[in-house]
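Regression test case RT-17, inverse folding.

Input:
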């Protein structure tokens, strides 16, 4: 990749470049997205069926259920799009949140081990979990969940850890 990445939460040092960037696989939105869409559809159907009725309770229910569905869909989508995973030539980042922000960052020189986990369904759908362990800690330091094409991410991380980014200087 080796490209410029613009984000107010990411502060690259001189000569540092982004070599991999991703957001979670869409599966990360889970059951909330179809549930919200179902509520929106239900609300629309109730509104449509009650359009000619004099009784307004059905319309209120249709609007309420549809609005709840819209809020669920919007919040789920925004949470998904606001999560970012970034690997630079010297650091790893995981950023979550829009209004409040949680950014985990640490230098690659601290990385001791990595693991890549994929179940059968995850392999079929093209996502997995990449976990990073640092020296002096038995617990995971950072976990990238629902990473699309996790083999590519793990390969990029391994190349950076070995000092072979494959990026040609310009």
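Golden output:
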């Amino acid at each position: 990749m080796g490209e410029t990445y613009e984000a107010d939460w990411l502060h690259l040092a001189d000569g540092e470049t982004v070599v991999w960037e991703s957001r979670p696989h869409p599966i990360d939105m889970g059951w909330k997205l179809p549930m919200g869409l179902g509520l929106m559809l239900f609300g629309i159907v109730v509104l449509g069926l009650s359009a000619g009725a004099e009784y307004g309770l059905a319309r209120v229910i249709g609007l309420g259920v549809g609005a709840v569905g819209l809020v669920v869909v919007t919040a789920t989508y925004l949470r998904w799009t606001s999560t970012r995973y970034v690997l630079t030539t010297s650091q790893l980042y995981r950023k979550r949140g829009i209004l409040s922000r949680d950014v985990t960052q640490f230098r690659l020189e601290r990385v001791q081990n990595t693991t890549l986990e994929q179940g059968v369904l995850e392999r079929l759908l093209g996502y997995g979990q990449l976990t990073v362990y640092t020296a002096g800690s038995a617990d995971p330091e950072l976990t990238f969940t629902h990473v699309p094409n996790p083999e590519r991410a793990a390969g990029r991380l391994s190349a950076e850890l070995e000092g072979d980014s494959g990026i040609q200087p310009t």
